[in-house]
Amino acid sequence: MINRVYRPRKWFPPQGFLGWLSFLALLALVLAAAGDAGLWYLRANGRFASKASFVSHFWAYFTLGGCLVGLLARGVSNVLRSVPTVWLLASLAMQHAGMLFPRGSLPPLSGPAIRVMTLNLGRGEGLRPAAYAYLRERRDLDVLFLQEVHGDAQAGDRPRILQALGSRYPHAVWREGPRSTGQLFGMAILSRFPLREAEVVPLPPGPVPGGVCAEADALVAKAQVGERAIRLANAHLCPPRVPWKDIWSRDVGISFGSVLDWLATLRLYEYSRRSQLIYLRLIAEGGVEPFILGGTLNTTSKSLDVLRLAQRLSNAFDVSGSGFGFTYYAGPFGGRIDHIYYSEGLLARNADVPPVTVADHQPVEAVLELLPPIERPRPRF
């Protein structure tokens, strides 16, 4: 009888093409798990790093890519391959499991319901007629936030929108786009409720000296809902820096110089957007009335730069939506960068991203319940 001793196949040092492919795939898998753990550490401790913040915009793709690359690590140590893979799968589940299951039922309404929508009309003019027609069909909206409203009161989007909607929204405030951008980045708040105390609040550009980031503003107003007042804010923030766009978000293609410029300025854009998000939090804390923020924040609800804002405001889609709810696509990759946030005194009963093609962004809508005011006892001295 011959006794055979099992000897595991030696995988290090790698030999041959397949050996090197497995080794490099294992290395990429371990690095992806380490990077994912680093993002969770920064998120759990409320810390910020510009390059980590940029990666966090693509967190789900980064994590899923690590899992897929790990499939190529054949013939290596099972422990070294399975531990980071389990970590990455658990990370994906923690990020997105809540979006894949139906929400529980809510109690009956105890206050008025406000249907809010935000829509970025985009740069292109080709889909403008479809956007006007869609807004004309939506007869159930109470508050409408619009971004990238082109032109002014005489020409452009404003007269066409007013003509399409008629008297459906008797109250509106507008912010014309800066002339430095060709009046491309205007904003509007349209409401069935009376609006007052409207103003344009400049947002801090941070370390970015010019371009779109330096032109970011917030359009704020108060709406009178019956006997209650709520505060509204519409914002379009600094976008992430990508190598194929210039500082005005115009496509310029990829070149060696544009990549170098991207690497040199990436951190500036992340700090700029974070400073604008923190300023929006200060606006939210600057009053006692319930607060609704809508707009293109150019970040995802899982990104590191939005943590300070999310400590005070709730994301309507994260609370009551389902699915991924992507609002913008760059090629095959999508992300939800348009949001509706709300403060205490409101409750998200439903949120959705309608599957319509009316702009290069998808609209986001939410039904927010205005809760009865809480009687707080006066302090006794």
Corresponding CATH architecture of the largest domain = 4-Layer Sandwich
Q: Treating each run of at least 4 consecutive H or I residues as one helix, how many helices? A: 9
For the report, how would you describe the main beta sheet? 6 strands, mixed
The span between the termini is 95 Å
Coarse shape: globular
Structure characterization notes:
A hairpin with a 2-residue loop joins β6 (217-225) and β7. The mean pLDDT is 89. The relative contact order is 0.13. Helix content is 33%, strand content 22%. Strands 3-4-2-1-14-13 form a six-stranded mixed β-sheet. The chain is of the alpha+beta class and 381 residues long. The protein is globular and about 90 Å long. α1 (16-44) packs antiparallel against α3 (59-70), α2 (50-56) packs across α7 and α3 (59-70) packs antiparallel against α4. It folds into two domains: 16-97, no CATH class; 113-370, Endonuclease/exonuclease/phosphatase (Deoxyribonuclease I, Chain A, 4-Layer Sandwich), CATH 3.60.10. The protein has helices spanning 16-44, 50-56, 59-70, 78-96, 128-137, 157-165, 256-285, 307-310, 316-320, and strands at 113-120, 143-149, 171-175, 186-191, 195-202, 217-225, 228-236, 291-296, 314-315, 328-330, 333-335, 338-342, 346-352, 364-370.
